[in-house]
């Protein structure tokens, strides 16, 4: 469905419909600016959270790894880590940055990964599921199950109950609006748990959090901010979910 809006001058605009080719072009361009990625900003805190739930010496896949910032943090946490991404430019960059690390298990395009035989104890989906529609999400989760070992874990971060209209931008060349980070859907703990169950995963942990407060203010102030947000009934901006593959 195409949504129509208007500019201040009253001209009618349309919402951009993200095709696979547009998504690929968008993220190939964004790969030039690795410092802007969510995992570049908060990857250290995400890696600490992964360490709480992943088995020691687990083999981890960073699914849709972007420019590989989280891979670096996971390698420093003593995991064996591989990555995959839709963008060939990102895959090339990740291979260049981490290729010499002894615990790096390689970077692949999605097609290369699914054509191979690599299996992982944990698959991390950091800021991925807000970018895909139902059809694409089904393909993502089918791919995750193919590379995940039996009873393996998935670790997901995503914006918490995001208002998608809050980050709309307008392109004056094509007269379309789109989310500045290519988000197409919003998730809550409830809706995500329900969807994961339909894919054969049981939620172990669902935590509403704020990675930015942990990084900038330390643990004590983080929990103080969480308490104040709860008191004021303001939701945390980030959602972290750990789920386990349920054997058939």
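^ structure tokens above, recovered residues below v
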């Amino acid at each position: 469905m195409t949504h129509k809006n208007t500019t201040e001058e009253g001209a009618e605009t349309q919402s951009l419909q993200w095709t696979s080719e547009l998504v690929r072009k968008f993220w190939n361009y964004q790969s030039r600016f690795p410092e802007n990625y969510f995992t570049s900003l908060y990857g250290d805190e995400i890696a600490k959270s992964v360490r709480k739930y992943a088995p020691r010496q687990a083999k981890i896949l960073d699914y849709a790894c972007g420019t590989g910032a989280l891979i670096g943090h996971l390698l420093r946490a003593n995991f064996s880590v591989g990555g995959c991404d839709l963008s060939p430019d990102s895959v090339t960059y990740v291979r260049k940055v981490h290729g010499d690390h002894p615990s790096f298990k390689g970077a692949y395009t999605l097609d290369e990964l699914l054509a191979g035989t690599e299996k992982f104890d944990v698959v991390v989906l950091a800021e991925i599921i807000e970018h895909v529609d139902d059809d694409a999400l089904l393909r993502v989760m089918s791919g995750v199950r193919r590379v995940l070992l039996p009873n393996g874990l998935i670790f997901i971060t995503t914006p918490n109950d995001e208002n998608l209209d809050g980050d709309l931008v307008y392109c004056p060349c094509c007269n379309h609006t789109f989310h500045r980070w290519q988000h197409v859907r919003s998730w809550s703990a409830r809706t995500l748990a329900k969807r994961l169950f339909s894919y054969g995963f049981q939620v172990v942990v669902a935590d509403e959090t704020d990675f930015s407060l942990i990084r900038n203010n330390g643990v004590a102030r983080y929990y103080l901010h969480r308490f104040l947000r709860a008191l004021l009934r303001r939701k945390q901006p980030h959602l972290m979910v750990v789920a386990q593959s349920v054997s058939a």
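The chain has a mean pLDDT of 88.
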